[in-house]
Amino acid sequence: MESRQNLLTFRGGILFSLVPLLIYVFFCVVLFICFKAFNMEALAVGGFLALLAGGLFCTSYKAFWDSVIKGISSITSVSVVIILLLVGMFSQLIKTCGLSGGFVWIATTSMEDFSQPLLFLPPVSCPLPPVLLSEPCLLHFPSFIPQA
What we know:
The chain has helices at about 1-5, 20-35, 40-55, 60-70, 75-95, 100-110, and strands spanning about 120, 130-135, 145. The protein is mostly helical. It has two domains: about 1-85; about 110-145, no CATH class.
């Protein structure tokens, strides 16, 4: 009987509990497909508007927001938010320093431009054997030694 008290009831029945989800999906479709806008702040606004609409359809406004806070404060939710934050920071760092352009350059460079392959010697603490490489950008690193 106690688990029955924790259930949220919505005006209009169980189908109206899907209204926040439908609002959020609609918001995502409009942003991504119609406007071709890939913005996290806009997605957060869509999610917040969907939550507000869900609160309006719930019979107990306080119970709805208590459930929202309980869901947001769970360890799974916090872990996902932290992971997304770190991925966003790392991707911005890659874009800012131009590393992605270097990867594109490596991928598009022909292997025929080099007369001798290079030998990569890993650090002493690394148990890996030497690796044979033949990319031009690797000449700039001191740990790459041309083979004799």
